[in-house]
Write a structure and sequence with these properties.
This protein is an alpha+beta fold. It has four helices and twelve strands, in the order αββαβββββαββαβββ. A hairpin with a 2-residue loop joins β6 and β7. The protein is elongated, with a radius of gyration of 22 Å. 26% of the residues are buried.
Length: 188
C-alpha cells in the first residue's frame, strides 16, 4: 500500500515538473526569444540561407531599434523577413555612388566590403532617395517606422520595394547564429 502511494506521488511530481518545464519553454518562446531560419540570400554575405538564429523579442519592448541592427519583421507577403535597419523615424536616407547617406552624413558599411570587392559591373546599391520609393510619400522615414535593407543589395526585397516597416511589425532583433556550428557566434 505504501509502495503504491509512493509510486503515484512520484508520478504526480514528474507530471508537475514536465508541465512547469513546458510552460516555461512556451513563455520564453512567446515573449522572450524564438528561433528563426534564414530563408534566401538577401542578407549574404552576413547571413547564409539556412542559418539558424535566435530572435530577441524583448529588446524593442523596452527599447528602440538602432541603425544597423539586424531585425526580423512581418512582411506584407504574410512572411517574416530578416533585414538590416538603415533608417530610423525622421531620417533622410539616400544612396549615391555606392555610399549610404543618412541625414546627409556618409556612413561606412563594413558588412558590405566583401560584396563591393566582387562587383564588376556598376554599383552594389543603386542610387536612390526616399522620394524614389513608391510606398513612401515623404522625404523622411515616417514616424514609428524603420527603413530596412538586405546586405545583398542586388538580390534583396526590402524597404526600397515594400516601403518603410512599422515598428509594430518588428518581431525583434537578432545577432546570434547557433547553427551550423561552424558559423556559431555573433554577427554584425
Amino acid at each position: 500500500m505504501m509502495e503504491e502511494k509512493k509510486t503515484r506521488s512520484e508520478g504526480l511530481e514528474w507530471i508537475k515538473a514536465l508541465l512547469i518545464a513546458f510552460g516555461l519553454a512556451a513563455i520564453i518562446r512567446i515573449f522572450l526569444f524564438t528561433p528563426i531560419v534564414v530563408d534566401g540570400i538577401s542578407m549574404m554575405p552576413t547571413l547564409e540561407h539556412g542559418d539558424r538564429m535566435i530572435v530577441n523579442k524583448i529588446g524593442y519592448t523596452i527599447g528602440e531599434p538602432h541603425r544597423f541592427d539586424i531585425v526580423v519583421f512581418h512582411a506584407p507577403e504574410q512572411k517574416d523577413y530578416i533585414k538590416r535597419v538603415i533608417g530610423l523615424p525622421g531620417d533622410t536616407v539616400e544612396y549615391k555612388d555606392d555610399v549610404l547617406y543618412v541625414n546627409d552624413e556618409a556612413y561606412e558599411e563594413p558588412y558590405l566590403d566583401q560584396y563591393k570587392s566582387e562587383v564588376q559591373d556598376g554599383t552594389l546599391t543603386e542610387d536612390f532617395t526616399l522620394q524614389d520609393v513608391p510606398q513612401i510619400d515623404a522625404q523622411t522615414v515616417p514616424e514609428d517606422h524603420i527603413f530596412v535593407m538586405g546586405d545583398n543589395r542586388r538580390k534583396s526585397k526590402d524597404s526600397r520595394h515594400i516601403g518603410a516597416v512599422s515598428i509594430d511589425e518588428v518581431i525583434g532583433s537578432t545577432s546570434v547564429v547557433f547553427w551550423p556550428i561552424k558559423d556559431f557566434g555573433l554577427v554584425k
